[in-house]
Write the structure tokens for this entry.
Amino acid sequence: MRRAFKFLLRPTARQATALTAMLDDHRALYNAALQERRDAYRHPSKVTVRYGDQSAQLREIRACDPDQGRWSFSSQQATLRRLDRAFAGFFRRVKAGETPGYPRFRGAGRFDTVEWPRDGDGCRWNSQPEHPTRTRTRTRTRTRVRVRLQGVGHVKVHQHRPVAGTVRTVSVKREGRRWYVVLSCDDVPARPLPATGVAVGVDMGAASLVTLSDGRQVGNPRFLAAAAGRLARAQRELARKKRGSTRRRKTVAKVAALHRRVRRQRLDLAHTVARDLVRDHDLIAVEALRIVNMTRRAAPRPDPDRLGAFLANGQAAKPGLNRSVLDAGWGVFLAVLRAKAESAGRVVVEVNPANTSRTCAVCGHCHADSRRTQAAFVCVACGHAAHADVNAAINILRVGLARQGAEAA
């Protein structure tokens, strides 16, 4: 398996300045490469510039520009590959008829990561034990962990858990005033948990984050809604600041810190709930949700009788629902659940969510009128009454078991 390990860096003041300069120089390289591609496309000859052409220019650039020459050659190649992937995604979206999203120039706040494609080439992840320290009861060896970055030096790392597998790529990321190192590791061994013989269906919701087929529910704390007041005040304060001023930069950092706090809260809840599900169940059936489609803006409906007028399309009711869905963090939770299940040897089955909330879990009758309200389900055929989310979770579990049995056969 491939897993990523993220650790906090503790650079000195001089190293933090060097890390900032490294980001700025890689961002300048990215923007210059983007400008070259734009100019080549606009040229009458329609010259095509690809990654190989720009990578071949790196030696000349490093020789002429001392700022670029002090950084790792491989990290600069990774920055050019990043631009190449952006263009590949652009052309793929154009071919598919989606919104293209042409690659844009990166400002100081939109370029926060530098990657080294291989450990040992411009960077080195290493752990070296110091001299053992004696205590009254035992001899304890402290481990000082550092990562060496070309042009920066040996930076201290707060390693809060062991690294498993083989380190392949190393990335340095800036989040606000903090710096992190991200290790992408291959061949990470799995840690299978003992079998429990229990399967569960999981229904995602906005009122409750998850509802299980056994009747248990995990509430949705609505972290973004809880921080909405502080965010609104910070954004009003930001709107009053003059662009380019020091106070505006401080207020931007304040708003970003509030959003990062909400993101960390969502991620912590997702890890907690997913850990409990994986520990207690062998098979977990979930809905194959298309969250992007669910939160997409409603398509306009032109009025055939009035030129330039439009019919009601339900968009007025969607912003509140979209905000609730995104605040619940379904995508984050499902990604964490799949990763933990893979490491623990559990099975996650995705089922089609169509009609799971309208079908009776007892008789199988499907009708829209059976779901009286958001929480109440009363079957119009047999009269079975249950919580709507619990009924849906039971249907999800039944479909998941049937699908798993069919695949096993």
About this structure: The chain has two domains: 15-109, 199-408.
